[in-house]
Design a protein that fits this description.
This protein is of the alpha+beta class. Helices cover 45% and strands 16% of the residues. The protein folds into two domains: 70 residues; 39 residues. Helix 1 packs across helix 2. The two termini are 32 Å apart.
């Protein structure tokens, strides 16, 4: 079961947390808009979204009225780097060219991390 969770916060400390099952015909964008409104969003309110990088999230946020691109948070960036490190370390070393390529890729992932 896929559950979508949201947390809307204001700079003044207001907070609304909400969730919905993804395939239960829940109007996630509507739920998001209602939580924005509950916390006092107006047409002049600047909204910044932090996400886990889910590809469908940008459309969902646009449907909820968030026009700025979302920001991928550091925790999820680190998780993606961990995946890249595991993939690089699992590369084949069955010939000298692949060994060289693996060394370069592992080093580059570590540099990025």
């Amino acid at each position: 079961m896929e559950v979508r969770v949201g947390n809307v916060e204001t700079t003044a400390g207001g907070r609304q947390v909400f969730a919905a099952v993804a395939k239960a015909d829940a109007d996630i964008a509507g739920l998001t808009r209602r939580n924005f409104e509950t916390l006092g969003q107006t047409n002049d309110t600047e909204v910044t979204a932090l996400t886990n990088g889910c590809p469908g999230l940008r459309c969902l946020l646009a449907d909820a009225g968030v026009t700025k691109p979302p920001i991928l948070d550091w925790f999820h960036i680190a998780m993606r780097m961990q995946h890249a490190a595991q993939a690089a370390s699992g590369l084949s070393t069955d010939d000298p060219d692949r060994v060289k390529a693996k060394v370069v890729m592992v080093a580059e992932v570590e540099r990025l991390r």
